[in-house]
Write the C-alpha cells for this entry.
Amino acid sequence: MLVAIDGPAGAGKSTVARALARRLGFSYLDSGAMYRCVALLAREAPVSAPAQLARAARIELPPPALDGAPPLVLLDGRDVTQAIRTPEISAGASRLAADAAVREALVAKQRELLAGGDWVAEGRDIGTAVAPEAELKVFLTADPAERARRRARELGADAAAVLAEQAKRDERDATRAHSPLRPAEDAIELDTTGLSAEDVVEKIAALARGDRR
C-alpha cells in the first residue's frame, strides 16, 4: 500500500508521515530531503548543472528510528541529515523544485523507490505527479500563522520572518509551471490547525484501515 501525504511547509507532513510509517510498519519517503540534497550539492559545486547533480546523486533514506529521532539522509555515502536543514538549503530546494529537469530526475528516483513494498511518502506532488496511483492520498493544510509558528519553533527562528519567507515559498510552489502544489482530485484534505501530530496520525491511520468517516 502507498499513502501519499502532500501539503505546504509547516502543515505537519514530515512529523506526521514519519510517525504514521512507524505506526503502520511502512517504509518512509521524504521527497523534500531529496531536493534539499541537490540544493546542497549545487551550493558546494555552483558551476555544475543542477539536473546533472540530481541524476548523479546517490540519495539514501534509511527507515526512521524507532525512538522518533529525525531519519538519516545519506548523500553519496555521507550523513547530511543536519546539513540539509538550514534555511539557506531550504530556500535553494524550493527554487530547484521549479526546475523541470531536476524534478524529472528526482521523480524517477522516487518512483523507483516506491515501486515495491508499503510506503508512506510525503512531499508536494506525491499524489499528483510522483504516484497518482496511490491507494490513499491526503493533503494536509493549516492556518498560515500556525504553520509559521511551527516552522519557527522547529528552526529556532523568528515567527514573523518565517511567515514572510513562507508566503514567498507558497507562491513559488503554487505557481511553478511543473507540478504546482495542489491537492490531487481524489485527495482527502485535512486541516491540522489546532490538532496534535498524534491526532493527525490517528486520523490518517484510520483512513488507511478503510474508515472514511
Summary: The chain has one domain: 2-208. The mean pLDDT is 91. Residues 2-208 form a domain with the Rossmann fold fold (CATH 3.40.50.300).
